[in-house]
Each structure stands twice: as C-alpha cells, then as structure tokens.
Amino acid sequence: MTDPKDEIVEHLSAMRAFAMSLTRNSALADDMVQDALVKAWTKIDSYKPGTNMRAWLFTILRNTYYSHHRKARREVADVDGEMAASLAQKPDHDGRLQMRDFNRAFDQLNDEQREALVLVGAGGFSYEEAAETCGVAVGTIKSRVNRARKQLVEILQMSDDEVMEATDIVTTGIVTNQKNVA
Amino acid sequence: MKQDRKLSSLEQEIEANLKRVYEDVAKQEVPDRFTQLLEQLRQADKPSTESSND
C-alpha cells in the first residue's frame, strides 16, 4: 500500500499558488505552506486514502491562514504590491498594467470571496469540493464566487475609465515632451 | 451595446487574469526548502537507529 505522505510533494506547487492568493505576499505564503506541511505530515491519519488530497491539504492551508497568518497579512507591508505599483509602466491594454489593475481589484475582495473565486475559477475545484474545503454549504460558495466576480467587474470598470483618461494624459505628455526635445 | 461588449470582454479578462495569478505561482519551480522539509520530516519518522550523524 502506498504511503499518502509520498503524494504530498505533488501538491506543493498548487499549495503555494493557493497560499499566495490568500496572503498576496510571497514570503508569508511560503511560511504558511511550511506550517501547513508540518501539520499535514503529523495528522496524515486524518486523510482518507482515495479522497481528494489537494482539497485536504488546502483545508489545512486555509485553517493555518485564518488562525495565524491573516493577522500577519494585515501587519506586513504589501511588499509585492508596492513593488509592482512602483515600477514605471507604460499603460497598455493587453500587458502588465491590466494585470496590475486586476491585482489591485483582487486585493480588495475579502478573504472568503477571494478563496472561493480562486478555488473555483483557477484551482479547478468543483463548487462541491470548494464547499468542503472551506467548510461551508455549496450555496455559500456559489454566492461568494458570484459576488466576487461582480465586485471585480465593478472595480475594474471604474479603474478602466481612469486608465483611459490616464493613458490620454500620459500619451499627450510624452508627445509634448518629444516635441520639446526635438 | 458597446457597453455590453465591453462588459463581456472585461469578464473574460477577469477569468484569464485570475488563472494567470494562480498559474504564475503554480508553474514556478518549488523552492528547495519545501522538498528539504519533506525529507526532514521523513527522516524524523524513521527509527532513531537509522538516522545518520551529519
């Protein structure tokens, strides 16, 4: 019989991705994965072989987040976000600026909405699996996902208008500057 | 109608960016600290007679 502990390694990448989407900070995310791995290892007996190991690991990961790391997340400066924001970027509509806007909007969702959206929209979890992972009803997950999507649309629609204006101003500025230089 | 087109493309962007946020990390090589940690945990599981001094 195979040891379920041997399977944990296969989920490391996904654990980091999920942790990152909860904490939005790479150092914190990796600390969280580390804590969750130790916990998973010591309570491996609570894993039922043949069931969804990723969902089981994600449950441990999110419990770690809510019991220890959520507080830390509020305390640490958003280093990754600040770095991304401070990088001078030319506004373009299919590149990184759009991603930066998305990241900002994504950060404004609450934890419960963000995790539901990530599990279903990116992690490939069914609503049922996501509900089990988060310990809530399927209907709750569905409404969190719907609210999260709606909120992202609202935030991005607003920032999209601002970007359009900013792009015009920046472009005009660049053109003016170039004329002056020439 | 222009508004509708804009909205549906925004929704598509959201779905694509959401996957990108997750997959950007999921595709990264897993740092050694995690594979080392699993190895340490495995070593710790073994009876102490099998552990080597290093």
Automatic annotation (TrEMBL), chain A:
Cited PANTHER family: RNA POLYMERASE ECF-TYPE SIGMA FACTO, RNA POLYMERASE SIGMA FACTOR RFAY-RELATED
Name of the protein in question: RNA polymerase sigma factor
Keyword field contains Transcription regulation: yes
Gene Ontology MF terms in the entry: DNA binding; sigma factor activity
Organism field: Marivita cryptomonadis
UniProt domain RNA polymerase sigma-70 region: residue ranges: 10-74
Family: Belongs to the sigma-70 factor family. ECF subfamily.
Pfam family membership, one: Sigma70_r2
Keyword hit for Ligase: no
UniProt superkingdom: Bacteria
Any Gene Ontology biological process: DNA-templated transcription initiation
InterPro entries: RNA_pol_sigma-70-like, RNA_pol_sigma-70_dom, RNA_pol_sigma70_r2, RNA_pol_sigma70_r4_t2, RNA_pol_sigma_r2, RNA_pol_sigma_r3/r4-like, WH-like_DNA-bd_sf
Keywords on record: Sigma factor, Transcription, Transcription regulation
RNA polymerase sigma factor 70 region 4 type domain ranges (all copies): 102-152
TrEMBL record, chain B:
Lineage of the organism: Bacteria, Pseudomonadati, Pseudomonadota, Alphaproteobacteria, Rhodobacterales
Annotated Anti-sigma factor NepR domain residues: 12-45
Superkingdom of origin: Bacteria
Name of the featured protein: RNA polymerase subunit sigma-70
